[in-house]
Amino acid sequence: MSHIVILTGAGISAESRLGTFREKDGLWTKYDLNEVATPEGFARNPDLVHAFYNARRANCRNAQPNAAHAALARLQKEHGGRVTIVTQNVDDLHERAGATDVIHMHGTLSGALCAACDHRWTAPLAMSTDDPCPTCKEMATRPDIVWFGEMPYHMDEIYHHLTGADLFVAIGTSGNVYPAAGFAAEAQSAGVETIELNLEPSATANSFDTARFGPATRIVPLWVAEILDER
Ligand code: APR
C-alpha cells in the first residue's frame, strides 16, 4: 500500500484568516517570540503567554477550514493508500475538514498541559495561571504547545513515516524552523519523491524534486485531483 506524508505549515491556514508567522504582518512581527513562545518567556510572564494563546484559541474557533484542508481530507478518504498529515500548525482545521491520521508535532491550541505533573486535558477557551491542574492541583497550567527550545512531539513516528513514504509533500511552510525544515532532505536521502506546494519557494526549496506555487486553496485541490487521477 502506498504512503503519502504531507507536512503542513501556517500557509495552509492563511486563507482561513489565521496568521502566518514570518510574512509581512506575521505573528512574529507583532509579538516577540522569546516572550510568548519559549519556556523562559512563560516563566517570566505566564499571564502574557496565556493571553497570547487565548487570543489565538478564540481566532481558531472563529476560523473555518478552507479548500486546501478539505482537499487533503478528500485525498485521505479516496486515495486508497495511507495519507499521513504531519502539521506544524496548532489549529484544528485539518480535523474540522474531516482529516484523520493527523500528527501535531508542535502541540495544539485545544490542549492544556500541567508543567508539574505532565497531565493533559482539553483547554478551556480562556486559560490562566489561576486554573489549577485537575490532577495534581498545582497552579502550573500551560498551553500544550511546543515552544522554541523544546522537543517537538512524535518525532520517532514522523521519521519512521518520512523514510518509508512513497511521496513527501510540504504545503505552506517557509522551511525556517527545524526539525520540520529538514524533513524534505531526510525524505529525499531515503529515496522518497518530494514536492513543495507553496506561495513562493521556501528556504529549503532545493530539497524538493518538484514545486508548484500559488495560494493553497487553488494549488492543493488541483494537485489532489491529479493524484486521484481526475483531470
Ligand atoms: N497558500 C500557500 N502558502 C502560503 C499562503 C497561501 N495562501 N500564505 C502564505 N504561505 C506560505 C508562505 O510563503 C510561507 O512559506 O506559508 C509559509 C508561512 O511561513 P511561516 O510564517 O514561517 O510559517 P511556518 O513555516 O508554518 O512556521 C513554522 O515556526 O514559529 C514557528 O511553531 C511555529 O509552526 C511554526 C513554525
Structure description:
The protein has 231 residues and is α/β, with parallel strands linked by helices. The protein has two domains: 141 residues, Rossmann fold; 69 residues, SIR2/SIRT2 'Small Domain'. Helices cover 33% and strands 20% of the residues. The protein has nine helices and nine strands. The strands form two sheets. It has a six-stranded parallel beta sheet with strand order 3-2-1-7-8-9, with helices on both faces. It has a three-stranded antiparallel beta sheet with strand order 5-4-6. Helix 6 links the parallel strand 2 and strand 3. Helix 5 packs parallel to helix 9 and helix 7 crosses helix 8. It is globular.
**Number of strand segments:** 9
- Percent of residues in beta strands: 15-25%
CATH architecture label of the largest domain: 3-Layer(aba) Sandwich
Oligomer: single chain
Shape: globular
**Helical percent range?**
25-40%
Could you report the average pLDDT, rounded to the nearest whole number?
A: 96
Catalogue the ligands: adenosine-5-diphosphoribose
* Cα-atom radius of gyration: 18 Å
Function: NAD-dependent lysine deacetylase and desuccinylase that specifically removes acetyl and succinyl groups on target proteins. Modulates the activities of several proteins which are inactive in their acylated form.
InterPro entries: DHS-like_NAD/FAD-binding_dom, NAD-dep_sirtuin_deacylases, Sirtuin, Sirtuin_cat_small_dom_sf, Sirtuin_class_III, Ssirtuin_cat_dom
Cofactor: Zn(2+)
Keywords: Cytoplasm, Metal-binding, NAD, Transferase, Zinc
